Amino acid sequence: MLLRDLREQLQAAGSVPLVELAQRNGLPLEQLLTLLEPWRKRGRVLLVEAPGSCSSRRCGSCSSPCTEQRLVQWQASLPA
User: Fold this and answer.
1) Where is the Transcriptional regulator HTH-type FeoC domain (predicted)?
2) Structurally, how many domains does the chain consist of?
3) Dist CA 35 CA 79 (whole Å)
C-alpha cells in the first residue's frame, strides 16, 4: 500500500522534493531512498538536484544551510 501511495503521489505531481515526500509519508529519508531504489534502477524514478541547490557539496562553503535538495521525478515513459 505504501508503494502504491508513493507512486500515485509522484505520478500526480511529476516531481516532489525528496524531504517533502518523506515527511508526507512519515518516513525517515534513508527508508524512503531504500523504497525508491528499485524504481530508480529501472529508470522509473530519477533523483535530480533541485534548481539553485548547492553544487559544491562542501558544507560551510556558502551561507546556505546544508540540507537535502534533491527532487524525485516520476518518469511516465521509460527511456528507450
Assistant:
1) 3-64
2) 1
3) 21
Q: In angstroms, rounded to a whole number, what is the distance separating the alpha carbons of residues 46 and 70?
A: 10
* The amino acid at 17: P
pTM score, whole prediction:
0.76
The rounded mean pLDDT for the chain is: 84
Contact 3, 10 (CB under 8 A): no
Distance CA 27, CA 40 (A): 18
Position 65, amino acid: P
Quote the domain boundaries for residue 20: 2-52+67-74
Q: Where are the beta strands (DSSP E) in the chain?
A: 15-17, 45-49, 70-74
